[in-house]
Amino acid sequence: MSNYHIKHLEEYFQVYRKSVRDPESFWEEIAEEHFLWRKKWDKVLEWDFTKPEVRWFGGAQLNITENCLDRHLTTRGNKTAILFEPNDPSEPAQHISYSELHERVGRMANVLKSKGIGKGDRVCIYLPMIPELAVSVLACARIGAIHSVVFAGFSATALATRINDCDCKMLITSDGSYRGAKTIDLKGIVDKALEECPNLETVLVAKRIESDIHMEPGRDHWLQPLLDSAPTDCPAEVMEAEDPLFILYTSGSTGKPKGMVHSCAGYMIYAAYTFKNIFQYREKDVYWCTADIGWITGHSYIVYGPLANGATTLMFEGVPSFPDFGRFWEVVEKHKVNQFYTAPTAIRALAKENLEYVEKYDLSSLKVLGTVGEPINEEAWHWYNNNVGHKQSPIVDTWWQTETGGIMISPIPYVTPTTPTYATLPFIGIQPALMDENGVEIKGNQVSGRLCIKFPWPSMARTIWGNHARYRDTYFSAYENKYFTGDGAMRDAVGYYRITGRVDDVIIVSGHNLGTAPIEDSINEHPAVAESAIVGFPHDVKGNALYGFVILKETGETRNRENLYKEINQQITEQIGPIAKLDRILFVSGLPKTRSGKIMRRILRKIASGETGNLGDISTLLNPEVVQEIIEKAG
Ligand code: WTA
């Protein structure tokens, strides 16, 4: 019997040891007992990190949609697969059952085929969070087309770059989208992008908002009439285990975005297995991840992981602030959500608002709270724990990356005791290592270093689309025989990991390494502060000094800035040491963020250094307008 569902700490340690001692037989058991195959594998694992080349379940054949849909039809046909909650709370939610989803995916797959799409073709999906997005993703997988989902908040330039990089033949989009009180002219952005995409042949347009849009004759087609006349049954394409399932772009620290390529079998197994355990999903639960399917979190933990387990996965079209800041909690109450997975940036934004927005709702259905995307600061962790979980729901701080395909370091709720700001223990099968500056592994506890992974896991990305050399250089050349994550981490006395942030965010002040996260934590604990970011800027004596960009809470706005600055520095001095004091502080109304909510320190670093002439492309930011404000204030 495989250990598919881990229920207590002793079992975790026992299964973990097994997964490390004999990874092949461990993953083979999981694959054998919990997934549907057309043909079994010849070899569980072949790998070589120097090339790098990793093959899981070589020789096996399968289709991921048979695992996510077909095999549930007899036992869960009427169970809700996707629970769609629209942007506008007065629009009814939709309960899409497994049978209905199976049919809708079949129809869509037949439409794709009728437009000449087949195995291996790339299809770009640029859709808001409506059911057609999940259906399109699965329809591609059904026929073996490689989906490349581009987050529908990206600009025309960003979309065009991604379409061209992997040479997509087709684009699936919508006439427009809702975002809180606004509507967005998605098709207008598409038309602009496609001026730069000569090889794209076909555009399928779903209708979401009633707007008058341009339809290019010969190229653009309304989706609904095609679906209406398509047969519901579409046989699944038989895929090799290592065939690409999808491409997903992630930005590098430099250069153009990297199209991470994920494979069929390994990705499926790891996304499903982590989902089951890290959210402790039980048959009747309603699970909600607030991410967008345009990010890896949405791929693995809205679509594939939940559906492979026959779960009910909630898809939310809206934003946390519409119609007011209670929306998340209203949805939790309305659908009796059991597992809720969001990002620290959302938690911090909501924590800034009146507590009544949370207190108004009955959140007693919640059993597990998750966070992902960046280190969660202590204040946000406690706010989440106290006000959302009422100290009853464990928080799983899940560390992972687009490249890793699934969660790598995380507590298992009700199994691993949690500690604020700690991602805690490696998940089953994951072998982390901390490395020093000289490339030597740092053993033992109470140490910190650069986080690497020293053994393959099933859902690791296999390459960067069209650029295997960049894949090798970025991830496998810094440390011999190891995957380098780009993150720094510490391991405490009991072996728990705390991710300290990107190693490129480390600032060396007077020869001391300072991570941005702990200093920001300290600043954020000041009662007048809502959020902050620090960067280094050149200093004659210290090499680097610290520059803080600080957003005040409403209550802080009336305070004297000079006094606040002193108090903040006093607090840093007390919590970290005088070395971490800020040399400059700027009170701002917002911080430049990526669409996934990460602070763009690169831009802040340039502003702090006075190099505002060359900020690079800021068009893909969530809030490009704050950049000008910060430049002006910085003088
Ligand atoms: C950061 C998101 C601390 C980290 C799934 C990583 C985190 C990058 C955490 C990947 C966490 C993600 N604690 N840092 N729980 N989760 N990160 O590719 O720096 O969008 O390398 O994948 O986010 O971001 P990506």
TrEMBL record:
Domain AMP-binding enzyme C-terminal: residue ranges? 519-598
EC number(s): the record gives 6.2.1.1
Q: Which GO terms describe its molecular function?
A: acetate-CoA ligase activity; AMP binding; ATP binding
Q: Which residues form the AMP-dependent synthetase/ligase domain?
A: 70-462
Gene Ontology BP term (one): acetyl-CoA biosynthetic process from acetate
Spell out the CDD domains in the cross-references.
ACS
Domain of life from the UniProt record: Bacteria
Q: Which UniProt keywords apply?
A: Acetylation, ATP-binding, Ligase, Nucleotide-binding
Q: What InterPro entries does the annotation carry? A: Ac_CoA_lig (IPR011904), ACAS_N (IPR032387), AMP-bd_C (IPR025110), AMP-bd_C_sf (IPR045851), AMP-binding_CS (IPR020845), AMP-dep_synth/lig_dom (IPR000873), ANL_N_sf (IPR042099)
Q: Where is the Acetyl-coenzyme A synthetase N-terminal domain?
A: 12-68
Task: Spell out the Pfam families in the cross-references.
Answer: ACAS_N, AMP-binding, AMP-binding_C
Q: Which family does it belong to?
A: Belongs to the ATP-dependent AMP-binding enzyme family.
Instruction: State the name under which the record lists this protein.
Output: Acetate--CoA ligase
